[in-house]
Amino acid sequence: MVGYHVSDANSYIVVTGGGVEDVKIVKKAWVYPWQKANVISISPFDFEIALQAMTIEKLQFSLPAVFTIGPDDEPSALRKYAMLLTGNADGTPASRGATPTQTGRAHVQTIVKGIIEGETRVIVSGMTMEEIFKERQMFKTKIIENVQTELDQFGLKIYNANVKELQDTPGSEYFQFLSRKAHEGASNQAKVDVANARMIGEIGEAEKRGRTRQEISKIDAQTAVLETQRKSEKATADAELSTTQTKLNMQIKLAQIQASRQAESKDAELQRDVEMRRAEMELERRRATDLVHAKIERESAQQNADAKFYTDTKGADGTLYKQKQDAEAAYFRATKEAEARFFAKKKEAEGITEMARAYGQMATVLGGPQGLLQYMMLQDNTYEKLAKANATAIHGLQPKISVWNTGAEGAADASAPIRNLFQSLPPLLSTVQEQTGILPPSWMAQMPPQVDNAAERALVKKGKNPVVNGNGGPH
C-alpha cells in the first residue's frame, strides 16, 4: 500500500523495490508505488515438542520440552529473518489480511522443530541415561547452545527453554522400573529390619528343632547314600550328552566369531582409509595455517622494525631539539643575568651619585663638611657608641680623678677668664702626665714632683683634703 507506514512497537516494516538495495528494515517509512512493504513481528512464540531420543545405551525415552523463540532484535539478524523466513512455506508472499504475528509462524515452527530434534538427538546419543539425570543443567545448556548456533543463520534467538521430566516411550518401562526400584529398595530394607527381629526369636526355636533333625538325619543319610549312587550313574550319562552338545555349540560360536572378525577387519580397513584421508586434509590445513602465520610474523616484524626506526629517529630529533633549546635558554639566561647585574650596578652608582649630591646640599645647609659630619654622627649615634666604647675600655680600672676649683662664680672680674685658664692648665697637664706619661715641654711649665698616692690616702683617712695638682680643697 502506497503511503507513510508506521509499525507497532513489536514489529518492523520490510521495504523492497526500487531505490532499495536488497531489503530495508525500519520502524517507519514512506512506501512508493514502485516499492512493496511487509510487516514482520519480533514477538517471541512458544511451542511444545515431545521428542523421542535414544541414549548411548540404546535406551529410548521421550523428552517433552517447551521453547520460547523469536527473531533477534539486531539489524543483521532481522535481515536474515526477513529474507529467509517471511512469507509462506512454499515461497509465496503472506496474505495481505494476515497479522504480523501470524506471518510465516507455521513455517518457522516447522524449521525450528526440525533443528531442535536433530541437535537433541545428537547430544543424547553421546550421553548415558545416568549422565542425563545427574547433569540436567549441562544437558539443557548443550541443547540451547547447539540449537542457538543453528538458529543464528535464520536470525532467530532462544529466549527460554524448559526441559520437562523424561518419560517412557510406548512399550518401554525403564523409568517405571527405576521408580519401582526405589520403592522396592525402601520396602526391602524394612523387610530386612523385620527379619532381623524375627531371626532372634526363631534361633532359639531352631536350636531345639535342630537336635530333633540330627537324629532323623542319621536315618535319612543311609537312605540317601543309596539314592546318590543311582543319581551318580544318571549324572554320568547326562554329562556325556552335555559334552557332545557343548562341542556342537562351540563349533557354531567359532563360525559366528570368524564372521564377526571378518566384518570388523573390513570395517577397520575402511576406517583406516577414512583416517588417512582425514590426516591428509589436516596436513594440508596445517601447512596453509603455518604459511599464513609465517606471513603474518614477517609483516609484524617489518612493522615493528619500521616503528622502532621511527621511534629512534623521533627520539634523536627530540634530543637535538631539547639540547638546542637548553643552549638557547642558557644563553638567554646568562644575557639577562649580565644585563640585570649591569642595571643594578648602574642604579647603585646613580644612587650613590644622588646621595653624594644630597650630602653636598646638606653640607651647604649645615655650614660645611664639619656640620655634615656632626649631623651624620648624630644620626648614627656615633657619640653614644664612642661613650660606650670608652666605658667598656676603662671598665674595672681605678682611674685617677682630678678635681679643682677655679673660684667663685658670678664675680665681676675682667681678668677672670685669663686667671681661670692659667688655673686649669696645671691640673690638665698633670692629668695628661699621669694618664699618658707625656710631660709638657720645659718651656711651657715645670711640673711638681709626684705625690705618693699612699700619702694622699692617709690624709683622706685623717679627714684632711689633700692638695690635688697644686690646688687645695674646695674653696
What report would you give on this structure?
By secondary structure, the protein is mainly alpha-helical. The protein is 63% helix and 12% strand. It has 9 helices and 8 strands. A hairpin with a 5-residue loop joins strand 6 (45-54) and strand 7. Helix 5 (174-365) runs antiparallel to helix 6. The radius of gyration is 69 Å and the shape is elongated. The N and C termini lie far apart (152 Å).
Provide keyphrases for this structure:
475 residues; mainly alpha; three-stranded antiparallel beta sheet; 9 helices; elongated; disordered C terminus
Number-wise, the strands total 8
Distance between the termini: 152 Å
Describe the main β-sheet briefly: 3 strands, antiparallel
Give the low-pLDDT segments: 96-103, 464-475
The helix/strand class is: mainly alpha
The largest beta-sheet arranges its strands as 3-2-5
Mean pLDDT: 78
Rough outline: elongated
The share of residues in helices is 55-70%
Quick structural gist:
The protein is mainly α and 475 residues long. It is 63% helix and 12% strand.
Secondary-structure map:
Elements: E1 3-6, E2 11-17, E3 24-26, E4 28-31, E5 35-41, E6 45-54, E7 60-71, H1 75-84, H2 105-124, H3 129-134, H4 136-151, E8 156-163, H5 174-365, H6 369-379, H7 382-393, H8 416-436, H9 453-461
Antiparallel strand pairs: 1-4, 2-3, 2-5, 6-7, 7-8
